[in-house]
Amino acid sequence: MKCKNCGARVEKESSICPNCGATVNKNSDYVLLSNQDMVFEDVYSSKKKKPITRAIFIIFSIVVIAVAGIVSYFYFYGVNSAKDQPKLSFSSGYGVINGDEKVVYVKIKDASSIEYIHGVNVYNGEVDETMHKKPQAVSTDYNYTANVDKSFRCIFFDMDDLDLSGKGNQTYTFEMTFSYYNDDNRYTYYKTVNFTSNTKTDISDTVFDHSLIETVTDEPTTDKQESTSTTAKKDEPVDYIYNGYWYTDPYNEADSYSVSAFKFNSDGTFISTDYSKTGDENWVVSTNKGEYKIKGNTLTISTEDGESDELTLDKKKQTISQGNKPLTARKYNSIKNAEDFFGL
Fold first, then answer.
1. pLDDT, tens only, 104-148
2. Sequence ranges of the chain with CATH classification 2.60.40
């Protein structure tokens, strides 16, 4: 209703006009009070408090949502932080492999729990997880080697792929992402490598695992086992011949050295790598391709040049022999392996 004195809006339950202070009496006329007697009632106080309460509630809700978002982020996306991710140790270096291939590498110590490598970036300069914006990767074309137990050993980049400026000291950073057995998360690690492209140091023994491949040794057999050996031999697999490189008996006369390595593929083809060296000269490396056939315990090889030879398989011991000389199984094919046979 309206005040009859000033026309202002007056709430029904109010007995005083909030604008002019006149007394409101439904049974009589309004009485205009003097300035000294005027009484003002904050009839809108209850309504004015409502917007403030609502604002506080909205602000509180926003704060709660923000805190929940931060907690969720660190819970779901922060699992691969340095605090939570499995610890790994790395070493690094640079040098030459395979005779003339210059590489820079990171070696993983005790990588037996790593299941997959999900990518490796290499950056020019120092880079770490604290950088909000990383530079563009120089290369993602990484290579890796494994140990004889099939765990990861080294990750390396060819220096020719790194767009090196000058021949002075260089600083690059490896960004490596791994996942572990029985763990669906991915974890990223950083390792800075300082190196120079002006190097001739052979690092094959670091990058590659030159350990001998384990072969089956002789075990005593009973008469009963011996009587069934003929049947067993027919089903004995030859998959072991694909597991590495088979080096021939090394030849050394005076200051001349030579040795060959066979790599047999499951499709009936093979590659022979021949290493030869005289005196202090560099190693001469050549390759030949060919085919092979297995009949019983005999492995016959034929090269594209028309040469052929027969090797002997011992499927039980998982060995290959050339004449009466057993071939030596190695995991990798490299000059370092060749040199090892001669103690060079």
1. 999 998 888 999 999 999 999 999 888 878 899 999 999 988 887
2. 89-207
